[in-house]
Design a protein that fits this description.
A hairpin with a 2-residue loop joins strand 4 and strand 5. The two termini are 24 Å apart. Strands 1-8-3-6-9 form a five-stranded antiparallel β-sheet, covered by helices on one side. It is built from nine helices and nine strands. Helix content is 46%, strand content 20%. The longest helix has 19 residues.
């Protein structure tokens, strides 16, 4: 699951500059509102206002103000699987088409990040995935399959109660089941079934804390036909039973 570890919006004066030889241990996303200078193989290159740059974990980055104030929206993003498709231009400025859309979505993410709501993790995952999908849509080298896979994965986590099957998911994307499994693993470094289980358990965790429904009803709301099967999968992910989880969290 995508997690945001830090984020904010910051303005610096004309002397602002950054050089991190070893980058950050997580992904760094910048939405740069002002003209700036980013280091490339040929030295520093000027960029106009409203560009995005996504750095991989550990990727060197160097950038600075371009003669005036520098403002950016920034996010440190942790993910157990690759965030973008193979060939994505990490570390290179990408012009924001319809920049206001990106800033509005960033503001929603920022508000949710600091709200610390009960469903914050799930909401932040979906909103951040949407922001990254918008960014990937603006690159020329975009993998045409990735967007479909990402939308599918977001829907799994939004609607965990659906009776998800790999066969139906592959058909939806217009590919064979074997290729679906291969590409899902390549894009997200996990299996489709594992994500379905995680989505259901995550939804169950939220319902156990936010509702007074019985364990049997929550199992049903999360797509389980058998409460015993639900309890086994819940325990395998969380290390405890639904009843004990509810007692510890409320």
């Amino acid at each position: 699951m995508i997690e945001i570890t830090r984020m904010g919006e910051t303005t610096h004066d004309e002397n602002f500059c950054v050089l991190r030889e070893k980058g950050h241990p997580v992904y760094l996303l910048l939405l740069v509102k002002t003209p700036a200078l980013f280091e490339t193989e040929d030295g520093f290159s000027g960029t106009p206002a409203d560009v995005a740059v996504l750095f991989r974990p550990g990727q060197r980055h160097s950038y600075r103000a371009a003669g005036g104030a520098y403002t950016d929206c920034w996010m440190h993003i942790s993910s157990p699987s690759p965030l973008m498709f193979e060939g994505f231009p990490f570390g290179k400025p990408i012009p924001l088409q319809g920049a206001d859309r990106f800033y509005r979505l960033f503001r929603l993410i920022l508000d949710e990040f600091f709200s610390n709501g009960k469903n914050a993790k799930a909401v932040l995952h979906s909103l951040t995935a949407a922001l990254l999908e918008m960014l990937s849509s603006g690159t020329e080298s975009r993998d045409p399959l990735f967007g479909g896979f990402l939308a599918l994965r977001e829907e799994v986590f939004r609607n965990a109660a659906a009776q998800w099957t790999a066969g139906a998911a592959a058909k939806r994307l217009g590919i064979c089941c074997g290729y679906f499994h291969t590409m899902y693993k390549k894009y997200f470094d996990t299996t489709f079934l594992t994500d379905v289980i995680r989505a259901r358990v995550q939804t169950a965790e939220e319902l156990l804390v936010s509702s007074s429904d019985s364990v049997e009803r929550i199992a049903e709301r999360c797509g389980y036909m058998s409460v015993e099967h639900f309890i086994r999968q819940f325990r395998s992910i969380t290390g405890t039973t639904p009843a004990r989880y509810r007692k510890a969290m409320t």
